[in-house]
Amino acid sequence: MKDDKKWLGASWGETMNKKQEAIQLIQAGQIKEGLEKLTQWEKIATDEEQYEILEIYMELGLTDRAERLIQKWKKSGKPFDGELITMEAEIKMEHEEEEEAISLLSQIRKEDPAFLKAQLLLADIYQLQGLDEVAEQKLQYALSLAPEEPVIVAAMGYYYMERGDYKKCIPYFKKAEQLGFVGQHDNIKLHLAQAYSATGEFETALDYYEKGLKEREDLDALFGYGYTALQLHDYERAIEPFTRLKELDPEYVTLYPYLVRAHKQLHNYEQALNIAKEGLSYDEFNDTLFMEAAMLYDLLGEKDKVSETMWEAISLNPTNSEAILYLLRFFREEEDEEAIIELMSHLKELGESDPLYAWFEAYAWREQEEDEKARQAYEQANIVYGQDPEFLEDYGRFLLEIGNRKQALQLFEQSLQLQPENEPLRNLMEELTFW
């Protein structure tokens, strides 16, 4: 008997050592060594410990190992409870065997402790299949059975958030938070921050971002915090999370244009330009960053770099109307008609003939004394600017120059209807009418 007790003690001690070693190795990132320890532990583990091993495999996403252990359990003839069925169903879901997963989960009876978890998994499957109403019904049914269960309340919030229904998700997340919900990989405060930001409640969103980020630093949340601060034009507040995000992950390229704009609004032009250049070192095809850099060169008085840099933006994205309009305005201010004509020609070759740009082209051809080309450009621009009093006056003065007095007077009259305080134009009309 003494020998038996000694053997049992040694076995228990050995099991505990293997378990602790395995978990410590995995937590330290030594996955291979940890899995070897788990394999050794499997051989001598009790049924309860087999559960623990299975949960570890599931958490690590090692579905092949988990499935092998489940099949081994089935063959042994041991009771196969609802918890094991849900694990098997999760594996089926991972393998995209959704119908098999539904069949398994449907076997779990209402009195089984795993029944509620099964309803949540069924909701996930139906949502993946695009059957949103069925998924919602499963969640609402689970909620009716356990209205104070934080996991189910939070699941309702996640469901509405994934659908983009942020107003509906907020009360569920708030209740889940009050009930003490703690997600293993989630931060409910950050979800609330995202939802409030999406519904335009920016001040409330910022409050939740601050609270949530104190609990857990998250890259997307840092971006969301900065972006939300920008919506309130709180540029100093926006800079901090964007800068922190850049420190944690400099390849998070989406942040750079927003950080550039925040610094630009505070007139930190040199710093903004350096950030734009840094962003381009990670993403050389970012037309927005080239555009921002060009604007900053303009603000810093480096006129010789504006055109070249903005051309980069437009070459990368010929549909970037903000960059195109900025460059057209720049060329007009510089009185560089040939550059306007060249840019317009380039855009037309790419199929980007837009009436939005035609007024600039009309100006360029007019200065070049190419009257017919200017008239055609004015006609095209009229599609967009036909209710703009300044355009109507400019077009009318051009028509007057080329001898089309009648149409010019019509345009002047339209312009005055839109801008009756334009006394110089009114005087011109009176002179033309008199003579």
UniProtKB/TrEMBL annotation:
It holds the Pfam family TPR_16. SMART domains: TPR. It comes from the Bacteria. TPR repeats lie at residues 219-252, 389-422. Keywords: Repeat, TPR repeat. InterPro entries: CellSynth/LPSAsmb/PSIAsmb, TPR-like_helical_dom_sf, TPR_rpt. The keyword Methyltransferase does not apply. The keyword Repeat applies. Transmembrane segments: none annotated. This is Tetratricopeptide repeat protein. It comes from Aliibacillus thermotolerans. The lineage of its organism: Bacteria, Bacillati, Bacillota, Bacilli, Bacillales.
